[in-house]
Amino acid sequence: MKKKSLGLNAFLNGLRSVLNLLFPLITFPYVTRILSVSGIGIYNFSNTYVSYFILIAGLGIATYAVREGAKYRENQEKIDKFASQIFSLNIIATIIAYLLLFASLLIFKNLHNYVSCILIFSLQILFTTLGTEWIYTIYEDYTYITVRSIVFKVMSIILLFILVKRPEDYLIYAAITVFSAVGSNLLNFIHVRSFVHVKLTTKTNWKYHLKPVLVIFASAVAVTIYVASDTTILGLLKSDYAVGIYSTSVKIYQVAQSLLSALLTVTIPRLAFLWGQKRIDEYNQVLSKVISSLGILVLPAAVGLIMLSREVVLIIASEKYLPSVNSLRIISWAIIFSIFAWIFSDCVLIPAKRENLVLRNTIVTAIENIILNFILIPFMSYDGTSLSTVIAEFTVMIMNGYSCRDIIKPVIFKKNTLKNLLDSIIGCVGIVIVCLLCNYGFNSLILKTIFSVVLSVIIYGAILILLKNKNAYSMLDRAKMILKSKL
After folding, report:
1. How far apart, in whole angstroms, are the C-alpha atoms of residue 354 and residue 363?
2. Is the pLDDT confidence value at 404 over 80?
3. What is the pTM of this model?
């Protein structure tokens, strides 16, 4: 199999992540003006309700499939057999999810007002399964799914402006959302045959697959509870206004986090493959490269977002959401901890088949986060919710790191790794100075933001080069090669 470029894959996956986040950011201002408040309420409730059944249908299979399937990708017979078994397991989970969904619609009478919208969103359950994106991840092929994602997102935005015209068009909006998210997944299923021959089979090694799948699923449930608890508790203890303010800071935080995690996501199948093949030296090299690269990107991203929180809120939201600035400044620190917690879990613990430790750490963190929310929210409102997220992410990072200390020790405790951290801290001082000067030097919001970002990147890069940072030189050489190839 031709070896894929991690840099290209990171760019493509990052682009796809940004598109998934930009679609609601582009469409939401339009639909809030067109649709009624009750229509928006039905849409949001139905979407959230179906997401739980999507979680059941997924069953943690995608994460498990990438870890196990990466070992077989160079053996066609084994990967065909493995993919068919996993797909069959996914289909069974999907059927169970639909049965539970239909049963809930029959049992809970207060859901009757939402039935039509819920049924439209429920198409995502089947088409997510048919999409088999875990196979594309195993083969590190992000080009196809990124291109089709762009096409379907653009088509969806056009359809939105053409078809959603009246307050009662929330069902059409729901259908367009589904089309945007999973409309191309049937094409995915057909195209995936260029990699493997997937079919339904009754010859599945249940004993081998089911235990790790259920452990990973339990971790996903714990994460869902952990993520959802912030907004739920804030709404219970405070108000819808507080939830709206916090949601704005979280949305901005998630955009930055998704961009940074793009590099991480594309390395998971490569790391799982190398670990599965017991090529430990190569595994350590790739892991070291990931940690070093993210090490010089995560800290400046967090510091930059902290310095420009007010400007970002004004540009993305409006003056109404200015109270979220402080909340955003607090939660920005969680970017650093969450990225490294994710490295330790998805790049180390899960490939090493220590998913039981990931589950334990996630449950402990979820409980801690819930307790902290009840303690901090009464005094700090949405700022308390942000602070609880930062503390929880720091905790899970430490716990995950400790759980894989024997694996990461030769990678983390190296002179070059520690130098990267020091270089990054010094570079961030330059970012702070640039942002302060731009704040005093420009009155225009747009000019201030543009110059702050551009000059911060230049100053940060220049400081790393002056400090003779190897990763900075490597990125510079790569940029020169790309420019030469274009000329």
Report:
1. 15
2. yes
3. 0.75
